[in-house]
């Protein structure tokens, strides 16, 4: 048996699309929506637009994403539970492929599909990167050292390429972390400590915390490369405060006082961060494309990110002399500066690829 949990917060139309995509893909699955809106009109509209097969649970208060997921999970006895963001829609065959991966490998605690950023599927979202104390120290170094910045950013790029350009024979791509926005959980793995998510995380980092606990308990994680969801993700400044608060909870829970990384980070942060750690060039954003060097025209990767480190970045694979910058998509990344990088569609190590600041 398979069930899905979707959390609603004033997004009944998005939830409707997400739920409909699940029922199109697997008409027999149980779909549960947990409403955190605390609004009678939103609750009414939510129930009005949803298929009668969808179960709706209305919370008395906004418990946050993780706690709402726990509520939904506790309302079903399904062996496999799909967590799905409301701005996400599964593609045909997604649920069967994810379930088959878990059913065929008892060591897997959770799997995720590849996340597409737009309906055509050219642009893809990056994989999750499991934060650790050492990784946070390295990121602070990267902001202050061009050598470290290039090494860290290339490492993240290579990790993303494993799912953006997978080996044709790969049925599963092992991962250290998965995104809670689209994740199929094995019930026995998720609930081994009583609940899937720690309610201390109101929003963000609850999936990192879950993945850390799953890995520590010996469970494997992976991405199924031929399973897809459309996730029309947007970056907003309003999310930053929640992220920073949850990040601190995550650090305190898993890494505070363990090792010397905090002292090293504090010393590192005494130096002023570089404005452009990857040595970017300016590019007029009114020009819709970047010119691709001849050596890469048979296969290139274009990345864009609001981060000057391009950690994380969204990616598009292509061919030809020009790599188009999708203005209609970059608008989703907020009003701040954006950065683009062009390079071969293969992993790189010490190569410094051209980076552009879109102005």
Outline the fold blueprint:
Layout: E1 2-8, H1 12-25, E2 30-35, H2 40-49, E3 55-58, H3 65-74, E4 80-84, E5 88-90, H4 94-104, E6 108-116, E7 123-124, H5 133-142, H6 146-164, E8 173-175, E9 182-186, H7 187-190, H8 206-216, E10 220-231, H9 238-254, H10 261-268, E11 281-283, E12 289-291, E13 300-305, E14 314-318, E15 322-324, H11 327-330, E16 338-344, E17 355-358
Parallel strand pairs: 1-2, 1-4, 2-3, 6-10, 11-17
Antiparallel strand pairs: 4-9, 5-10, 6-9, 7-14, 8-10, 12-15, 13-14, 13-16, 16-17
Structure, explained:
This protein has helices at residues 12-25, 40-49, 65-74, 94-104, 133-142, 146-164, 187-190, 206-216, 238-254, 261-268, 327-330; strands at 2-8, 30-35, 55-58, 80-84, 88-90, 108-116, 123-124, 173-175, 182-186, 220-231, 281-283, 289-291, 300-305, 314-318, 322-324, 338-344, 355-358. The protein has 11 helices and 17 strands. Strand 1 (2-8), helix 1 and strand 2 (30-35) form a beta-alpha-beta unit. The radius of gyration is 21 Å and the shape is globular. Strands 1, 2, 3, 4, 5, 6, 8, 9 and 10 form a 9-stranded mixed beta sheet that branches. It has a 6-stranded mixed beta sheet with strand order 7-14-13-16-17-11, with no helix packed on it. It is an alpha/beta fold. It folds into 2 domains: 2-130 and 176-234, Spore Coat Polysaccharide Biosynthesis Protein SpsA, Chain A, CATH 3.90.550; 281-358. Helix 5 (133-142) runs parallel beside helix 10.
């Amino acid at each position: 048996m398979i069930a899905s949990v979707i959390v609603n917060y004033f997004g009944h139309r998005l939830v409707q699309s997400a739920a409909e995509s699940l029922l199109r893909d697997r008409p027999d699955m149980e779909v549960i929506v947990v409403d955190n809106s605390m609004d009678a009109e939103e609750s009414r509209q939510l129930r009005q637009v949803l298929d009668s097969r969808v179960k709706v649970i209305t919370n008395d208060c906004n418990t946050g994403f993780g706690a709402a997921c726990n509520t939904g999970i506790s309302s079903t006895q399904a062996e496999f539970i799909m967590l799905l963001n409301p701005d996400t829609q599964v593609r045909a065959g997604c649920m069967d492929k994810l379930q088959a991966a878990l059913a065929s490998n008892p060591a897997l605690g959770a799997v995720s599909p590849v996340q597409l950023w737009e309906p055509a599927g050219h642009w893809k979202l990056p994989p999750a990167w499991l934060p650790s104390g050492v990784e946070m120290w390295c990121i602070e170094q990267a902001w202050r050292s061009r050598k470290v910045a290039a090494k860290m950013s290339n490492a993240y790029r290579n990790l993303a390429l494993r799912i953006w350009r997978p080996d044709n024979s790969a049925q599963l791509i092992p991962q250290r972390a998965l995104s809670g926005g689209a994740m199929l959980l094995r019930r026995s793995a998720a609930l081994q400590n009583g609940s899937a998510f720690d309610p201390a995380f109101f929003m963000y980092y609850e999936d990192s915390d879950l993945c850390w606990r799953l890995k520590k308990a010996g469970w494997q994680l992976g991405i199924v490369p031929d399973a897809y969801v459309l996730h029309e993700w947007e970056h907003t400044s309003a999310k930053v405060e929640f992220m920073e608060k949850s990040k601190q909870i995550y650090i305190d829970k898993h890494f505070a006082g363990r090792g010397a990384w905090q002292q090293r980070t504090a010393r590192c942060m005494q130096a002023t961060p570089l404005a452009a750690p990857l040595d970017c060039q300016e590019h007029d954003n009114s020009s819709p494309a970047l010119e691709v060097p001849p050596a890469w025209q048979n296969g290139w990767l274009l990345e864009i990110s609001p981060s000057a480190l391009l950690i994380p970045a969204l990616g598009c694979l292509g061919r030809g002399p020009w790599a188009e910058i999708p203005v209609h998509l970059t608008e989703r990344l907020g009003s701040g500066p954006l950065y683009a990088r062009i390079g071969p569609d293969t992993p790189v190590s010490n190569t410094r690829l051209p980076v552009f600041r879109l102005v």
